[in-house]
Design brief:
Rossmann fold, single chain, 11 strands, alpha/beta, seven-stranded mixed β-sheet, 7 helices
Length: 233
């Protein structure tokens, strides 16, 4: 089947701006690329999923035990969530997203990993504000919380997210973790020493991983950061 060069799969108005999902043929690579824009910002692309997958791999590698309860903040194209499901120790996976349109994309099977995500009985897709969930008293604790919503601790999609990256906000995240549980965070920026210091105030152990990946568009290497912080046992 011959692919068209460009297809808008969905467009919706949201409280944070216009949300657009599109598929296009990348002529230099000959592959279909799925992209998400919010307003004028490109949020994510299926060309660059290495760090999103590493968020799950690095976060879950730091967790001990079996029958893990995992929460993912931010559904997006689904690569972090599907990578978590690849770990056989994961007993339940709740993915929280503030945009119902994003959940709908996967329920409609619009993205390459949608079937694997929604077809796995361990998966629950929850429409909620992850940041509000973290502010609330926990009704249950998780073994891992994996977050990929904002560009970085300093560059948020919405100003209301900023409090999570403070010492007090990280303390609330910690309260949602079981003993030995892990909080892992994706960032588009290099390691932030001030944020690392805040993590160190709240968690027993904090590490910043630099994740390098080939950038087929620039011909060079790009980098993201994955922070992994562990609650004391």
């Amino acid at each position: 089947m011959i692919n068209s060069r460009f297809e808008e799969l969905d467009w919706q108005e949201t409280p944070m701006g216009e949300l657009n999902l599109r598929r296009r043929l990348e002529p230099t690579l000959g592959v279909d690329v799925y992209e998400v824009k919010l307003g004028d910002e490109y949020l994510m692309s299926s060309l660059f999923t290495v760090a999103e997958i590493a968020l799950s791999d690095l976060g879950l590698a730091a967790v001990s035990g079996d029958n893990l309860r995992v929460v993912v903040g931010g559904l997006g194209l689904g690569y972090t969530a599907v990578a978590a499901l690849a770990d056989p120790r994961v007993a339940s996976l709740e993915v929280i997203d503030a945009l119902p349109a994003v959940i709908d994309w996967h329920q409609r099977g619009l993205l390459p990993v949608s079937a694997g995500l929604t077809g796995d009985g361990r998966t629950t897709l929850t429409h909620a504000d992850f940041f509000a969930v973290m502010r609330a008293e926990p009704t249950k604790q998780s073994d891992a919380i994996l977050l990929d919503v904002d560009h970085s601790p300093r560059h948020q999609l919405d100003p209301s997210h900023a409090d999570l990256y403070t010492v007090a906000g990280l303390g609330r995240v910690r309260a949602h973790l079981s003993e030995g549980g892990v909080f892992a965070l994706w960032s588009d920026d290099p390691t932030d020493d001030e944020f690392m210091e805040r993590l160190g105030h709240v968690f027993a152990n904090a590490v910043a991983h630099t994740v390098d990946f080939d950038n087929a568009l620039t011909g060079g290497v790009s980098s993201n950061t994955v922070y992994v912080a562990t609650r004391e046992v």
